[in-house]
Amino acid sequence: MSIATTNPATGEVVKTFTPATDEEIEAAVTRAYARFGDYRHTGFAQRAEWMHATADLLEAEADEVAAMMTLEMGKTLASAKAEALKSAKGFRFYADNAEALLADVPADAEAVGAARAFTRHLPLGVVLAVMPWNFPLWQAVRFAAPALMAGNVGLLKHASNVPQTALYLADVLSRGGFPDGCFQTLLIGSGKVEGVLRDPRVAAATLTGSEPAGRAVAAVAGDEIKPTVLELGGSDPFIVMPSADLDAAARTAVTARVQNNGQSCIAAKRFIVHTDVYDEFAAKFVAGMEALTVGDPTDPDTDVGPLATESGRDEVAQQVEDAVSAGATIACGGTRPDGAGWYYPPTVVTGITPEMALYTEEVFGPVAGLYRVDGIEEALQVANATPFGLGSNAWTADEDEQQQFIDGIEAGQVFINGMTVSYPELPFGGIKRSGYGRELAGNGILAFCNTKTVWVG
């Protein structure tokens, strides 16, 4: 795949970029490793000053940044601006909280025969981040902010279709005051990742992306014995029980499925509804999906823009077509539109069975699977019948049912009577084939630290 900005609304190649040469990659790694030697000794106050300055710049430039992201991957302008502002919030969260999150943790010195005993969290060094295109700024920031505040330095290998966003992040951090070499964008293809990760000067890696990409990075990191954090795909359940507020659940379900044009790992994808309220919920949900406006992502009246890539749109269409050929039913949508751009309509599919790919695969587009279940045990069975375990949603006013969903859904996150969202204040990540490790909150900043035990006699 070439490194280029291609407008998903038109299919037009807007700008191409020359990949970094081996010599340029070597120079970037050398620069990062040398910078870590002194950057690790900067104080939290200095790092926080640079990070707040970066957040100020990002907020001031939010409209321009939003337009750039919309051009590169097709999200609506409103959602792109929200992402820019959320990224600034992520910078500020770690600027304000890193020192407390990384404070020494005292231990029971008497129990271990010491005068003093504690753990101290110290940075690992150069961390490689391999990032996806769907939230091109936020997903990179949720690595960059904690890594830099912990004293690490970063190398970013971003998705090849969002090069302008990737270069912007390195630029805005530089303009915020972070010294040369603290955070660099590498315009490289996936074939160059292994070489960077195997470099002995690179201490660790983090990847957000597809399961195959995660396997590849994890295999290399395992061979090199380097720590990794992986956030991979999701096929999140959205369970609705009879005691739920059906109007609120249906409204939220529409947003949860089509957020980011349906291209979110934590988007709800499988809607599992108790038979007693299935018909009523289905009617409200389908009506909500049908009411959405699909079109130009720069138009403020647009709800759903194009998918980011032509191959992505084709894969979504193929998944739906395969299900229909095996007996599934289309409640709305399901037809690939003619004309320019990589659009796909909000779609609801019913009658999905375990033999269909839609039953277990992630669908990275605005396609919802609707399932009828007889009770909570069957709801949990369907919810867990997937190799993924990222986010989940359950709607019920019954406290006992809430506890059963909290304990019983196999996922890294469960949101009760709400929609799965990533917050700087909460750990983010999954289990099973959705990956391992956690981003954000305290877990995110500790992921690339050496938790060093200190015993003083």
Lay out the secondary structure.
Blueprint: E1 4-7, E2 12-16, H1 22-39, H2 44-60, H3 62-73, H4 77-101, E3 105-106, E4 116-123, E5 126-130, H5 138-150, E6 153-157, H6 163-175, E7 183-185, H7 193-198, E8 202-208, H8 211-224, E9 228-231, E10 236-240, H9 246-258, E11 268-274, H10 275-290, H11 310-325, E12 329-332, E13 347-350, E14 367-373, H12 376-383, E15 388-389, E16 393-395, H13 399-408, E17 415-416, E18 431-432, E19 435-436, H14 441-446, E20 449-456
Parallel strand pairs: 5-6, 5-8, 6-7, 8-9, 10-11, 10-16, 11-14, 13-14, 16-17
Antiparallel strand pairs: 1-2, 3-4, 4-20, 9-19, 12-13, 15-18
Protein name: Succinate-semialdehyde dehydrogenase
Keywords: NADP, Oxidoreductase, Tricarboxylic acid cycle
Domain Aldehyde dehydrogenase: 3-454
TL;DR of this structure?
Helix content is 41%, strand content 19%. With 457 residues, the chain is α/β, with parallel strands linked by helices. β8 (202-208), α8 and β9 (228-231) form a beta-alpha-beta unit.
